[in-house]
Amino acid sequence: MMKPLMALAATTALITPAFADAPATGAVLDTYADLAEAGYGDALSTAEGLQAAVAALIAAPSEETLSAAKAAWVAARVPYQQTEAFRFGNPIVDDWEGKVNAWPLDEGLIDYVDMDSAAVNEENELALLNIIANPKVTIGGTEVDATEITPALLGETLHEAEGIEANVATGYHAIEFLLWGQDLNGTDAGAGARPYTDFVQGEGCTHDNCDRRAAYLQAATDLLVTDLQEMVANWAEGGAARTAIEADPKAGVSAILTGMGSLSYGELAGERIKLGLMLHDPEEEHDCFSDMTHLSHYYDGVGIRNVYTGSYTRVDGTVVSGPSISDLVKAADPAVDAQLRSELDVSVGALGEMKAAAEGGMAFDQMLAMGNEEGAAIITKAVDALVTQTRSIERAVAALGGEIEVEGSDSLDNPNAVFQ
Question: Do residues 388 and 333 lie in contact, with contact meaning Cβ atoms separated by under 8 Å?
């Protein structure tokens, strides 16, 4: 969806701390890896909480167990979103991320949908496959036996079937759809409203195939836990991601700044926030079934700041911290460091205002509505803050004598293309 449109270059490609007061770059990279290990560790533990809540829902479907599973999903998103700052600069994370956080999705691949909704995507022949209702399907001309819904079926056969990114069968958003169902309210108030009876086995089941729906939800949640276990191992001592980031100080620092800049600019400010406002389209909302997009955006912003300052507060309240990129930049150019720190606080504050507005009754999809000037102002303030801090990330790169490439977005770089 995104293209690398903005190159950030300085006079030399060398990134080493040649400053008397700078910490060793190796220590900075160690901190970064420790933050990643802690963040993915929290994402794993909260996903295990979600797994338990899903098992309870399946065992005894009720309003209470469905609400508890939804709450567990929301709790699981908080640490995960803070890990998104480890994307872009780390190929190991980028190659893996689509399994757990891919969006948007053609949800009709998974389950029943309203046939008058945007889920009917005529460009994707699998958009209405409905694997829950069909134990035998044809994908790419091959008959697939889906009698048993397993993590392997979801991850190896269905996910991104036929090479189409919208065929999302796994991860947080597939689980979100199964818990909430479609949000058919457009830019009006209200999230998805799937009834708990969609999981009732036998008499009382609504929308048919409740046993297969439960099996899909369990398989998707189990797979999420497995995938997060993989990423925790990658950042543990001796893990592939930690080893890669610590192997080359110059490349490691570049990876950190690339991740910060790309999430701040093209991904968050552009694709996830501004694009939806330009189109006034709730289908561009990141957490579109649950209306919890404000939390995703807020914790993405917090995650960028965590990486720069070298500090992460875990879900149990303990703090993981150490020498940081901020320390390197401060030693090179204290003014640039102070400015970027201030701008990171401003962006988190602006995203916090978005979060507060949503919690006060104006969900992100309502902010996108044409004519909602208050919502547009909240969104624009956040976008502007994210773009501004990206410029200071450029200055930080220059202060360290480096060169990176930041992901762009048509919504920021070529707005006319959005409407073509």
Answer: no
